[in-house]
Amino acid sequence: MEFKDYEKYRWFFTSSGKLVVGGKNALQNEQLLRIVRAQRKERLAMHTTEPGSPFSIILADMDKLTKNDIEECAIFTASFSKAWKEEKKKALVDIFKLSQLYKLSIMKPGTWGVRNKIERMSVPLELVLTKQENVLRAVPEKSVKLKKDILLKISPGKIDKTLMLPKFQLSLKIPFSQEELIVALPAGGVRINKK
Question: What is the mean pLDDT of residues 34-62?
């Protein structure tokens, strides 16, 4: 694994097994971009069009990315953005190469500019709970190969995730600690959807 500390960040594996890593806040976004850019390999990165989003990076060679990898990363990026807290159903995600990023000294941590053409994708805000690398994760549904591995489907909701913990613990067939659930879920309100 070329990025050893990925578990400190938001992360998941795409349906084709590619690692996606995103910052949990502005400082982590800054740190993540600096670390990955220092590796001097071209990577695909994403951020929502609106502020308040992780910078998500697919840690794989650009020529090995599939359409599904890109869509799954975009859904992940949007779902862990401010759009989830705002209970939006969809969000616009900007897709660009790491080499397009630039940083001016006046820019605050976590803020970067993007040069040249940006691709945009509108994606739904919805995730599923599953286990990846033996850790509870909230991931795009397409990234889970076997339907039996989907524990719950979730989308933005009105009730804060901390107040939903008892309902999650009742709905999940496998017991998880409150801390595991809090870490896995996006910030804000959440709704459990029918499978």
Answer: 94
pLDDT in tens, 166-179: 999 888 888 889 99
The model's pLDDT over 103-155, given as tens digits with 9 standing for 90+, comes to 999 989 888 989 988 999 999 999 999 999 999 999 999 999 999 999 999 99
Residues 6+ apart with CB under 8 A from 24: 9, 10, 54
Q: Are residues 113 and 67 in the same domain?
A: yes
How far is 131 from 176, CA to CA, in rounded Å? Answer: 11
Q: Are residues 41 and 92 in the same domain?
A: yes
Residue 56, phi then psi, degrees to nearest 5? -110, 140
CA distances 75 to 21, 35, 63, 89, 171, Å, are 13, 23, 21, 11, 24
Q: Are residues 116 and 150 in the same domain?
A: no
Count of domains forming the chain = 2
Phi-psi region at 40: left, alpha or beta (left = phi > 0; alpha = psi -120 to 50): left
Domain end (from 81, 100, 124): 124
Query: CA 12, CA 109: separation in Å to the nearest integer?
Result: 24
Same domain, 163 and 96: no
